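Researcher: Re-running this chain for the archive, since the previous output was lost when a drive failed. Same request as before.
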Amino acid sequence: EITCRDWSSDVCSSDLEGKEKTTTLELTYQQRFIQVIATPLGGELQDHTLLLCQDLTPIRRLETVRRDFISNISHELRTPLASLKALAETLQLSAIDDPQTSRHFLERMDTEIDALTQMVNELLELARIESGRVPIDLKPTDSYRLLVAASERLKMQAERAGLLLEVEAQPDLPKILADGPRLEQVLVNIIHNAIKFTSPGGKITVFAYPESGMVCFGVQDTGTGIPRDMLPRVFERFYKADQARSGGGTGLGLSIARHLVEMHAGRIWAESQPGRGSTFYFTIPQARP
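Model: Regenerated structure tokens:
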């Protein structure tokens, strides 16, 4: 409900001087943006005004996402490029004649180049997915083997981080209609994200269960958690809920996961409480007999 007190005096005024007037309202308590166009009418409807209300909230949100994307990608590229520049200058000026120091600097430069390469590859992959140019080979896929394969790929990384990574699911889970490698990539991205934000001594549980013609997959961690107001944005490109720990990763993994799940006619979401960990879920249709 919008009352006259929410509007500017131009629109509320009965004297529009025969001209169309426009104002934009920001309804803070509803987090919505409404554009109101007031047009004076003539003829038999003299002294009447036509009010057209348009909800601009989706457009404003898209503008915010685009602005954040440009800002974030600039930041993500600037850090490794600045590091490479500093390493190259130091190597050229003082360390070129010291083989041991030169080797150390070259190893650090190689690490930064790998990070840039990963970012570019993930951006290209995300662009291909969003444009629909990624082929999806849907066929009956073993849900349990998918869980195990994704967990095994990251088991050593979890152990190095001091974490316990477990699979909790029944081996006789229903098969799903999926592109196995693509869906394994989704699980790997989510598990990798859980490893980054879980402190040593924590636990990550990968699970799945059948539900209403779907199989629901989940990854639960005992990490830092995500504030409620940030949950809707965790699947955006480059968005990082924990800005203090934003140094690791590209911030693209969850966005790629969301697109791949939606390409399988599934749904993905997250639940979390700060300080008590997070759980990421996604559903995939079961394969028909």
